[in-house]
Amino acid sequence: MSPATPRPTTAAAAPAGASPAAPAALGVEGLTVGYAGAPVMADLTLEVPAGQIVALLGANGAGKTTLLRTVSGLLTPRSGRVVLDGEDLSAVSVEDRVRRGLAQVPEGRSVVAELSVEENLHLGALWKIPARRARRDAVEAMYDAFEPLSRRRRSLGHQLSGGERQMLSLARALIAEPRVLLLDEPSLGLAPRVVAQLLDTLRDTARRTGLTVLLAEQNVTSALSVADRGVVLGLGEIVADAPAADIAADPALRHAYLGF
Amino acid sequence: MDRIAFLLATGLARGLVIALFALSLVIIWRAARIVNFAQAAMAVVAVFVAFAVTALTDSFWLGLVAALVAGAVVGYAVERWLIRLVPARTPLPGMIVAIGLVMVLQAGIGIAFGPQHRPMAAPFSEQPFTVGGVPVLSPYDLFVLLVALGVVGGLALLFNGTTLGLQMRASAMAPEVSRLLGVRVPRMVTLGWMLSAAVASLAVLLLVPTELGLNAHSGDVLFVHAFTVAVLGGLDSPVGALVGGIVVGVLISLVTGFLGAGLAPIAVLALLTLVLLVRPGGIFAVKEARTA
Ligand SMILES: Nc1ncnc2c1ncn2[C@@H]1O[C@H](COP(=O)(O)OP(=O)(O)OP(=O)(O)O)[C@@H](O)[C@H]1O
Ligand SMILES: [Mg+2]
């Protein structure tokens, strides 16, 4: 495991004084998933140890989104299982996986367009913090962590820029203090600087709270710069699984599966 | 002049009932993306329960409560045991099943209770008050007006001021994202059906005392008007339902008063055609693309 290079810390991203939940390990065992026709991945096994950031890499159509959606329960696998801290999640609904501490920021613009920034944040916190006062405090803490959002509280989702939306999606997932976070291409359509800020915030949060992260990315360099480990998906199998620095330094691998 | 004041006032009361029913269609559309063609038939079932309760207890008020409860129960039953089983990939199957349900419910009521209209007494007088010798509004119209305004206000509060309302709105607009945030979306859909059917039942109950009486088809004309209103206002827009309901109610009242009842449906259709020509999405339609 490569030690993370020190970076300037951006704002803290958890409610002040909140005790982080115990980190959890995520496992995927013998997973076969597909749509109609041939499976997208067959018998895939992957371990994300507690507190680690794992970058999930691979070309377009490699199956990153499919894997994340199966882990969160939106897709039902043909066989195999998803395990959170030793518990088999096969019979657990999407909503209840969330309650077990498994959060997903889906691909694309997942902000609810017709709701305000504030409402989006409250929505993310509702199941965890039913009391209004405490929830307001948690929302305030997110405004502190994601400064630009605090200036757009009343704006509707569809009025935000791409970067603000991605920031809101991340904040909305973090507000409920998940133990495992699935992120699907947070860099999509964002300027490099915004990507760097977003990933920095993510890494700081993860370091401080012990959050386990599975980060699907096309933006290989950025993803590997914050990850402990990289997993490369090619044609439905894992073709490489190594410390982030090793993957970044392997030109053959980059040429063959990552296209640069 | 006297005539106009009277027609406007009764049109307003009638319009608010239409608005209530249209609002119930908006609620269900937003919760489940279904235009519920069975809404009137479902509401009539609930009003039959209310009728029975009133007949047994001699109390209009217990009947009113019964209509709300029975409406919610009917909404629950239809969603859980019928609509949920219908594939929801496109809106069409749901609508077809809803139309089938209309036939089953109306035939069932016809078989059980016969075709006759059962008169229902209003809890207040239907003789208009006069202001300076000019008849304006009956006490019952006033009661209808207040109840409708109260329900509209209550719904606005529910949807915009409570966390349940927030979850219902989010579930309707972005079901998948909502699930990923822990919202129990199927439960919100069921709640939407219950709420919608209860509101529709209330609207039919308020209407029946001013009509011939209760039978299987008591809600049909109201449904047609409310459907027009919902399309006019945009199926997504509660404000559109409210404004549209009042406009259609007043229009019907004025046309009936000055030109004769036979022309009222034609006036409503003309208005619908006009609006759809100018704004195909409805007057209050929102332009934004929705998220999944
Ligand atoms: N809803 C769907 N129905 C049918 N096939 C699908 C569906 N979604 C994805 N696929 C197919 O499954 C495969 C994997 O897609 P997936 O979206 O998981 O890839 P990805 O790695 O996330 O790609 P990208 O980097 O472009 O987001 C692709 O071949 C894709 O065409
Ligand atoms: Mg993808």
UniProtKB/TrEMBL annotation, chain A:
Q: Which PANTHER family match?
A: ABC TRANSPORTER ATP-BINDING PROTEIN (PTHR43820:SF6), HIGH-AFFINITY BRANCHED-CHAIN AMINO ACID TRANSPORT ATP-BINDING PROTEIN LIVF (PTHR43820)
- The segment(s) forming the ABC transporter domain are 26-260
Q: Which family does it belong to?
A: Belongs to the ABC transporter superfamily.
Which SMART domains would you find in this protein's record?
AAA
Q: What keywords is this UniProt entry annotated with? A: Amino-acid transport, ATP-binding, Nucleotide-binding, Transport
Q: List the source organism.
A: Isoptericola chiayiensis
Protein name in UniProt? ABC transporter ATP-binding protein
Answer yes or no on keyword Manganese: no
Pfam families documented for this protein: ABC_tran
Domain of life, per lineage: Bacteria
Lineage, top ranks: Bacteria, Bacillati, Actinomycetota, Actinomycetes, Micrococcales
Q: Could you tell me one molecular function GO term of this UniProt entry? A: ATP binding
Automatic annotation (TrEMBL), chain B:
Question: Does the keyword Isomerase belong to this entry?
Answer: no
Please state where this protein is localized: Cell membrane
Instruction: Report the sequence similarity comment from the record.
Output: Belongs to the binding-protein-dependent transport system permease family. LivHM subfamily.
Membrane topology per the entry is: Multi-pass membrane protein
The portions of this protein that span the membrane are 6-27, 34-53, 59-78, 90-113, 142-167, 188-208, 266-286
Q: List, alphabetically, the PANTHER family matched.
A: ABC TRANSPORTER PERMEASE PROTEIN (PTHR11795:SF451), BRANCHED-CHAIN AMINO ACID TRANSPORT SYSTEM PERMEASE PROTEIN LIVH (PTHR11795)
Q: Which stretches are annotated as coiled coil?
A: none
Q: Which Pfam families match?
A: BPD_transp_2
Keyword Transcription regulation in the entry? The reply is: no
Entry keywords, A to Z: Amino-acid transport, Cell membrane, Membrane, Transmembrane, Transmembrane helix, Transport
Q: What is this protein called?
A: Branched-chain amino acid ABC transporter permease
The organism's superkingdom is given as Bacteria
Q: Which organism is it from?
A: Isoptericola chiayiensis
